[in-house]
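Posting for a labmate who doesn't have an account.
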Amino acid sequence: MKILYGMQKPDEGTITVDGDQVSFSTPADAIARGIGMVHQHFMLADNLTVLENIVLGAEKLHGIGAKARRRIKELSDAYSLGVRPDVLVEELGVADRQRVEILKVLYRGARTLILDEPTAVLVPQEVGALFDNLRELKSEGLTVIFISHKLGEVLSVADDITVIRRGTTVGTADPRTTTSKQLAELMVGSELPSPETEESTVTDIATLDLAAVRLTQTDLDGIERIILDDITLTIHQGEVLGIAGVEGNGQSELVEAIMGIRRPDSGTITLGDADISHAPTRHRREEGIGYIPEDRHRHGLLLEAPLWENRMLGHITERPNSRGGLLDIKAARADTERIVEVYDVRTPGIDVTAASLSGGNQQKLIVGREMSHAPKLLIAAHPTRGVDVGAQAQIWDQIRRARREGLAVLLISADLDELIGLSDTLRVMYRGKLVADADPATVTPEELGSAMTGAATGHLEHTEDPAPGAAPAAPGADGTQSEDDTR
């Protein structure tokens, strides 16, 4: 898709658009031929409005005033996107941001849309709304390339399926006659891996304890907002505690509070027997907290640094990275070689930059780095977001192994099947509060999704046959979160 969007040049082969053979040197070339791409990591400026984000770089089309606003409104209405031009992007939830990205591409005249893992950050209700948008686009004559490893979604939305494995087209399929099992065998050569865990390994020994943790933040306009509201939870040795929630409801801030990146206004954080509420981040790392960040590019890697330097990040004072207060480059390099082998990081060597690896291999390097320091607690924030099926299975295996070896794991994920499959205990965050809990053995993704939008609280009990018309829906009329709901 990067080649089709002009971000990379192919070594050989041809691309034909509307019967014409084309060659793209930049994304501008692709846009000029009606091809637009919505990246998995959104490309929006948080401090600008929706209108400003849409016209940015395309000012020559309709200016930046009334004419641009009219065009945005026309496109939003035509494709039922429900975009609000004057809202700051930082105030939008992920589903709304995704619609802004789609509208940004349409505004530039795209007739072919590339969507890279578009459902990775959406709850089930939002996925349905997105698919309605895609069907609307298709009915207007647009072409959509939908990239996903979620087979049920592919089968429900696609008209044709092409399967790529290790950079090669291995087959095509007709969604009307193909089963998930057949598609999985094309993708990975066997049945798709499952996140399901074995028997419980939970002990009664508490590893991490949060008591009445509260965090506030003062906005630029001087208004104080509650980000974390009386968060109390305990994670035991051998336990995976899963946190479900629409992004922007306090999950990131909860992780930052545990890591020492943010200082809570009140409450205590205890690791083992030690109160670490006021300890610096490095001390928490040295005491045994491993951290797989939600955004590997912004918080997990130095993209232009070689792999062996990335292996040292976050653990600079610990062996094998240092000895006697001095960096031990030789030992760090040797251990990077070990991580590459043990965690199957596919790379030509440890001197290449992190940017040269695929997302899945970047993630495996991070997991290997964090697991190599025998942590007591592993914080895994969206550990398999944007990685291929093979890497996903390996990361799940590492989390299961960590659990068997007595680690406490805090798992935050937008993949509800992953959360349900890996977790021993499930909690739901909404507007900075833990509002619901569920038994992973009985809860469904739809029930979790309902609690994530604030429609259900308390203990989620599974009901076999919901009454007609009682399916959970998000507060917004189109099944998406409003501006207030996502704060």
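Reply:
Got it, the structure tokens are right above this. Residues 184 and 259 are 38 Å apart (CA to CA).
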